[in-house]
Amino acid sequence: MTAIKETSTIQENKQYALEKCPVTFVMEKMGGYWKPIILYHLSTGDKRYSELKRAIPTVTEKMLIQHLKQLEADGLVIREARPVVPPFVTYRLSDAGKGLLPVIQAMADWAFKVKDGVYNLQ
Amino acid sequence: MTAIKETSTIQENKQYALEKCPVTFVMEKMGGYWKPIILYHLSTGDKRYSELKRAIPTVTEKMLIQHLKQLEADGLVIREARPVVPPFVTYRLSDAGKGLLPVIQAMADWAFKVKDGVYNLQ
DNA sequence: ACAAGTACTTACCCTAAAGTATGTATATAT
DNA sequence: ATATATACATACTTTAGGGTAAGTACTTGT
Domains in chain A and their CATH numbers? Predict the structure, then answer.
């Protein structure tokens, strides 16, 4: 998407993380500001591009497709385009993407516990 | 830690996310490149600062304490300093931090499934 | 004729996060 | 006297990610 300077330390670190830390491996797939939100919205079923756009009103179109493309490239979502005009494109979770739902769920559980005062974060 | 420009759009978005999306709320606590790795290492028990440093050889000291301070400020880890010299400082997960372990675990499970070929990401 | 809706693309800018390098204080070991 | 270990701090630079704004192509509705 954006050109990557192969020599940068952060890229080397990403290599390290991929081999050494499973958690960071996941963060690389679902990290990025909007990705978890997108996955969350796709967890309830297929969505058209425009449906996602309306469901997440504060995301810009650039960010939305950029992340959708990345998620697709990472094999987490499947893009289906019907050859009609105006375009009709739906996105849905792949099996791998569905496999991330327990992660999403565990996150949501924690967040709700925080809101319910089960944990106090100060 | 770093001064924040209150008017920036990303800050408005963070507000939005906090109220609207539990998943993003979590990502703000444990997002950041090294945080999940640190939590992962603390999940097996208390660690001294220097132990963490050795356990995660590619992290710079600046990043390590910066994230430890943030995790502490967010109420996820507890810092304990014994008044001796040379310093003896241990970090451990708080209850809230321990509450994130299912998230970490779900992530690790997914990563291992990917490695075992349960999902194919291409 | 013109606006609106579809799903994007692209050029440019700005900032937050990460990295580099160096410094601090105190005590023990050599 | 010097080095090492502890746990940081801080000034400066780089980079990756996100944001802004505009444009594309094609069709239906008014």
Answer: 33-110 (1.10.10.10)
- Full DSSP string of A31-60: -STTHHHHHHHHTTS-EEHHHHHHHSTTS-
Tens digits of residue pLDDT in B45-96: 999 999 999 999 999 999 999 999 999 999 999 999 999 989 999 999 999 9
Beta bridge partners of B90: B48, B80
Q: Which positions in chain A touch B113 (Cβ < 8 Å)? A: 99
- Which of A76, A109, A121 lies closest to B75 in CB terms? A121
Query: Measured between alpha carbons, how far is B25 from A107 in angstroms, rounded to an integer?
Result: 9
Peptide bond connecting A87 to the previous residue in cis, omega within 30 degrees of 0? no
Query: Interhelix angle for A35-42 vs A61-73, to 10°?
Result: 70
Confidence grade of residue A8 (pLDDT, cut at 50, 70, 90):
low
More confident residue, A107 or B12: A107
